[in-house]
Amino acid sequence: MSIDQIRRGLQDYEPTLVDDDVERRAAVAVVLRERRGEPEVLLIHRADKDGDPWSGHMAFPGGRMDPEDPHIEFVARRETFEEVGVSLDRAPVLGRIDDLQGRNAGKPNSMVISAFVYHVAEPPAQLVLEEAEVQGAFFFPLWEMANPDRHVRRQFHETGEWEFPGIVVGDPDLHVVWGLTYRFIEVLYGAVGRTFPGGWAEGWDPQRPEGR
User: Fold this and answer.
1) What pTM was computed for the model?
2) 3-146+186-196 — its CATH code?
């Protein structure tokens, strides 16, 4: 599937949005480039940081909305430039996917995260990392994320004895996509009509021994 096919798929997709008055909002940018006719997605390895609920995670560029930010999509653009030096000012928005809620979903202190998909025709040759927030970043083939050989089920530092689905995108001990980023990828696949193996859409339950 090409960038153009992803664009057409997202044009017909109606994302599920959280329109309630929510105090804590954040946004992420799903940044795509095309290499040899195949889309690749930008992933960051967040810095290990006390007080950050996503410390050390693989993620999309993004962050919290500040009071001075004019709208939520602006946050995705701002954070991407601050974290990895990629300007999205001229990058078309291919579409928006579902809003997701972070920890304590449904409670007054929960955070709503919005996701916007962009196409960057010519990203910078070298990413400029904001070291306080990001310890690494790279592009990864989007459709390779559906490769069953990359899918794992494991415990993470924050999950105790519960196991969650993940995708190995590099070093198996460091570069595993899971949690919210995993869910956003799953939603993106569904939005453009592609099958994504396993995970939340198929009834994953971390409290059950086999996840089902």
Assistant:
1) 0.89
2) 3.90.79.10
